[in-house]
Q: What sequence folds into this?
């Protein structure tokens, strides 16, 4: 989801500290309030708790909380329980008419506010028919030719090259590649198991044979690094959902480690564990962009362009559109059909009359 980058929240002040769900009774002393029992959780703390209970991703959690915070600030820090559909419409319409955000950004804000009212506050709001919707531009994906793809990957090296090659060779999204765990690489079956992809769906995609030797060598080096981490009282990794409670020792086991771990260890603020995160997205994004510039490619080269190229090149080779849909993890085949419009032969293989045989 070209789209505009989501604007950052206008204030870093934690609103959870100033907007409680239950307001203090006027005239009641702090001692009396303390005697009455602990205060209910703050609004944004409650939002986070419900999102985690429903197993939303950390990125979705941060996004929803940020949009709810912006909504509260937009309306003078009034509690959302005092607001309703007119205020939601005014906020969303302002994003389109004043901030000129993309349609996907406005939809993200709408999803956050619907979650707030329908799930957290348990209030129904209407269909928001008065919202001024941001226009969704119809853009074709950036696709590299086979020669351009080869040139980009040839200008890279090391872990960045391996990760970019996997994105192109398996049609992965950037985070799907970076969040790949050792146990999800199936060399025998020549496949990758993608857990919690977009929409929290699992799928299976192919593991290119040409990448297997390099990937095996990389994992051997990472296993040695993991052994050093264990001896240094580190070697922990973040586990999904509640698996850390169910399998207490799994966070230090080799199968659960990231295929592309970060170069540094950090200390988790909650558990105190010394962990390795996976590589940050910007590491691969910058490496791919630099390689595209070095190869003299005028197109905007990105990891997602490599994924687009994977799908287009499979179509060029005659692969079935349904198979490509499954490999990419698209919910609807209409999303996959966009790649038929970027084939060099034109839509549906039509030849230009200028290219007719003599």
A:
């Amino acid at each position: 989801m070209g789209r505009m980058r989501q604007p950052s929240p206008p204030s870093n002040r934690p609103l959870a500290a100033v907007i409680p769900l239950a307001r203090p009774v006027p005239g009641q002393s702090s001692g009396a309030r303390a005697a009455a029992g602990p205060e209910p959780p703050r609004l944004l703390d409650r939002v986070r708790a419900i999102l985690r209970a429903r197993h939303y991703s950390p990125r979705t959690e941060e996004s929803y909380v940020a949009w709810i915070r912006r909504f509260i600030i937009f309306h003078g820090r009034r509690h959302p329980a005092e607001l309703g559909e007119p205020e939601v419409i005014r906020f969303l319409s302002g994003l389109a008419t004043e901030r000129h955000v993309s349609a996907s950004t406005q939809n993200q804000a709408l999803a956050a506010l619907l979650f707030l009212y329908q799930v957290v506050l348990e209030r129904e709001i209407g269909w928001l028919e008065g919202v001024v919707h941001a226009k969704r531009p119809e853009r074709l994906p950036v696709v590299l030719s086979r020669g351009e793809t080869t040139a980009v990957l040839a200008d890279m090296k090391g872990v960045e090259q391996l990760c970019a090659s996997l994105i192109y060779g398996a049609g992965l999204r950037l985070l799907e590649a970076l969040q790949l765990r050792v146990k999800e690489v199936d060399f025998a079956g020549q496949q990758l198991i993608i857990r919690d992809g977009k929409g929290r769906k699992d799928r299976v995609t192919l593991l290119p044979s040409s990448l297997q030797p390099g990937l095996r060598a990389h994992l051997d080096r990472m296993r040695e690094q993991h052994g050093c981490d264990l001896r240094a009282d580190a070697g922990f990794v973040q586990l999904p959902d509640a698996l850390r409670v169910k399998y207490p020792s799994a966070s230090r086991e080799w199968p659960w480690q990231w295929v592309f771990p970060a170069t540094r260890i950090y200390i988790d603020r909650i558990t105190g564990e010394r962990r390795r995160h996976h590589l940050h997205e910007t590491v691969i994004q910058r490496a791919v962009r630099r390689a595209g510039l070095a190869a003299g490619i005028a197109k905007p080269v990105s990891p997602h362009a490599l994924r687009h190229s994977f799908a287009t090149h499979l179509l060029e080779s005659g692969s079935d559109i349904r198979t490509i849909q499954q490999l990419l993890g698209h919910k609807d085949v209409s999303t996959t059909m966009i790649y038929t419009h970027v084939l060099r032969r034109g839509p549906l293989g039509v030849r230009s009359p200028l290219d007719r045989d003599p």
Remarks:
- The chain has 14 helices and five strands.
- Residues 212-231 form the longest helix (20 residues).
- Confidence is low (pLDDT under 50) at residues 1-28, 32-37.
